[in-house]
Design goal:
The protein is about 35% helix and about 30% strand. With about 425 residues, it is an alpha+beta fold.
């Protein structure tokens, strides 16, 4: 064990909490849980008491898996009314050799000059640096220079977006070491050479909301949050068959297909309705309902992408819990064309796309540490020893289990 990081994504339907270890530049999943949410509507905390109870359940599950207490976390905050501002900051280089400290101080100068009183700083995404007002490069560390200018994209949100999340976690004794958004987490989960070199969109379809973000060379430039998502599909199924919303959700996730043409007319699902009668639901019929509901979401996605950018998008990546529906790729390809892809989480043990924000925020956090030239872990040395010692709480580390499987990220090396 070297460095351990935990990340939480508080959604309308579920609370996602993941714990990962960075070892020899590879990310390993140590634990992941998705527990039912309470007191949260459309991604916003509306009942702190119920939300706190739901969040505690997530921490209890992960702590039971690992045998240690998680008391530090990276927290995702709502994207509502997020703003993106290109900042420029300048510093004089102290010893004529540029260091990590000079780079960070240049960013701080840009933030100080650009932040608005009613906004809260959330993220910064590097663009480039300029040495001595002429030489432009991505990483100037170690180069000679007298002045350094930093250019970056700064993400801010209304203060209440941040404080509502941070205050509830801190009331539980959880230290929030960093904050982020799904616009950051999702792109860092799926970044590749195509994304790094073009304009595109990331669409996170959650239970209560759908977040559409536009990127230029992996740098977020605009975001829209619309109040439509998986819960709308559940309601349509529940209304059609007079069943409870939880039953409708099960039918959607376990039985229905997102693309009705692949459904089997002879395949049925038995459920008890509100009249306490057992009914058999035909797969083709319920898939038509899901198909119709998804098409409404798709039309909204296309509308928002057109509103957010005038540029041609080269890729559209779909993530979030709804992207796991069976055969959804056929429906999206038919509607949005070949440039759309369903995101695929590579981290074994958390391949469900509902974890993309939480995992990506850890990757972003690690990138930020490297920019600062710092090392950091969220657990103590004693807890490290507990994790490194086989016991009943930990999954076996054989090659066939999640701890034995790793995947690499390139952190600018």
């Amino acid at each position: 064990m070297e460095h351990v990081y935990s990340s939480i994504d508080i959604g309308s339907d579920t609370i996602k909490l993941v714990v990962c270890e960075l070892y020899k530049n590879h990310l390993n999943l140590l634990a992941a849980t998705s527990t039912p949410a309470k007191g949260i509507k459309r991604g916003l905390i509306v009942d702190p008491k119920l939300a706190k109870e739901a969040i505690k359940n997530a921490f209890d599950e992960v702590e039971d898996m690992l045998g240690i207490r998680i008391n530090k976390v990276i927290a995702s905050v709502p994207n509502y009314f997020a703003e993106y501002t290109i900042i420029n900051g300048q510093v004089k280089v102290a010893d004529n050799i540029i260091t990590n400290k000079d780079m960070v101080e240049a960013y701080k100068d840009g933030i100080r000059k650009s932040i608005q009183p009613n906004r809260e700083f959330v993220n910064i995404v590097p663009i480039d640096f300029k040495i001595n007002e002429k030489t432009i490069m991505k990483d100037p560390k170690g180069f000679p220079g007298q002045t350094l200018e930093a250019r970056a994209m700064m993400i801010t949100t209304p203060k209440k977006n941040v404080y509502s999340v941070v205050s509830i976690l801190e009331s539980m004794g959880i230290e929030v070491v960093d904050i982020s958004t799904s616009a950051i987490g999702d792109i860092y989960s799926f970044k590749n050479k195509v994304i790094d070199g073009s304009v595109g969109a990331m669409v996170n379809i959650g239970a209560g909301t759908t977040c559409i973000s536009i990127y230029n060379r992996s740098i977020p430039i605009n975001t829209s949050v619309v109040n439509i998502g998986g819960l709308d599909i559940d309601k349509d199924i529940a209304y059609a068959y007079k069943v409870s919303t939880p039953d409708a959700k099960k039918i959607k996730e376990k039985f229905a297909l997102a693309y009705q043409k692949n459904a089997d007319v002879h395949n049925t699902y038995e459920v008890t309705n509100f009249e306490r009668k057992k009914i058999k639901i035909n797969q083709l019929e319920v898939s038509k309902i899901v198909n119709t509901s998804l098409n409404k979401i798709l039309e909204k996605i296309k509308e928002e992408i057109n509103d957010l950018t005038n540029n041609e998008v080269k890729y559209i990546i779909i993530t979030g819990g709804i992207s796991n529906l069976e055969d959804i790729e056929y429906l999206f390809h038919r509607s949005l064309g070949a440039k759309v892809n369903i995101g695929k989480i590579k981290l074994l043990g958390a391949r469900n796309n509902k974890y993309s924000t939480a995992i990506g925020n850890i990757i972003y956090f690690i990138e930020t540490l490297k920019l600062k030239g710092q090392e950091y872990t969220m657990i103590s040395r004693d807890d490290m020893e507990v994790l490194a010692t086989p016991n009943k709480h930990l999954v076996s580390t054989s090659e066939d289990t999640m701890l034995g499987k790793v995947f690499g990220y390139f952190f600018g090396e």
